[in-house]
Design goal:
The chain is an alpha+beta fold. The chain has one domain. It is 24% helix and 19% strand. The strands form two sheets. A three-stranded antiparallel β-sheet has the order 2-1-5, with no helix packed on it. The protein is elongated and about 55 Å long. The model has no long low-confidence stretch (mean pLDDT 78).
């Protein structure tokens, strides 16, 4: 599992038009390069994130658990 830390975290700055390191306050986060407010995604990445369909869960793992005795008691 990847460790999340401040030094490897980036947000999108529309003024710089790139993902940058940022300073976080209580209500907003600000770009360390220009001082403008930053957001989590660029508009393009946000649209792609919201329109990408999520794959449905494979039900075969549930069947396998039941046959191995890991399912609910019957």
């Amino acid at each position: 599992m990847q460790s999340i830390d401040f030094y490897n975290d980036y947000k999108y700055c529309s003024a710089c038009d790139m993902y940058v390191t940022y300073l976080m306050s209580i209500h907003d986060s600000y770009c360390t390069k220009c001082g403008d407010k930053v957001r989590l995604f660029s508009k393009k990445d946000w649209e792609e994130f919201n329109h990408t369909p999520t794959p449905k869960k494979n039900k075969s793992s549930q069947t396998r658990r039941k046959t191995l005795g890991f399912g609910r008691a019957q």
